[in-house]
Amino acid sequence: MKDRVEYKRSNEIPGLVLSEARFSDFRFERHYHLDYHVALVTEGVQRQGFHGETLLLTPGSIQLMPLGEVHDGISAGDESYTLKTFRLSPQLLNGLGEEISGQDRFPALGGAVIQDSSLAGHLCRLHDALRAAPPGSEPMKVQSEWLTLLDRLFVQTRMVKPQFVKGTLTQVQWQRVRDYCDAHLAEKITLEELAAICNLERFHFLKLFKQTVGMTPHAWLVRLRLERACSLLSHTDRCLTQVAQEVGFYDQSHFNRAFRQAFGVSPSRY
Greatest CA separation found in the chain? Predict the structure, then answer.
């Protein structure tokens, strides 16, 4: 199979570049990066030279590669391997550090390889979702999962201490969130916007929201959109396309899938 590699800059997460590659003959000569890499081998095996050691990266492996570290990479055998990579700019990494660690500066992150098939699977699906996200899609779900998974990853490697967020949103904050979502339901609503109206960082808001409501902000917002859609379908003669747009679904097929998943029938049969 011919070698291939694709890159995509994330619209939802500025400073993040995604890459997916399938290599059999291509060899990474000794090199380094000026950004931080979180890499996953999803098929095959990559053999890598790093710090004078030989590493074998297999499916389920997650590698953290710091800035400036010299390494190489090649297929470990005659078969090809597939590699998915999150490339985080220094600016993005520093911003995440403040949110996840609760400190002004992110602790120095070293290199590591961990074996966690569950976390690798979640990261792989997030990578696919970020690469496939069409223009105008709702960014909140992937933004929330991005923060949650990186927190889990960095805590698991003991590079940051877990930040325990206690308590809930205040009644005033919760009312602000509901009022804002009601007023902007037809628009894209981001995690940053909801956190800002509560005067909180995104990660802190995410934790407090779930402890307050019992759902993630994205799941709660999707349900609100669907409940409003039910009301419009029951009391107006708007067509399905109008209803989908008025409650904030970016296309009809997305609306149909979400509605069927929630209520067991398509919007046209409601």
Answer: 70
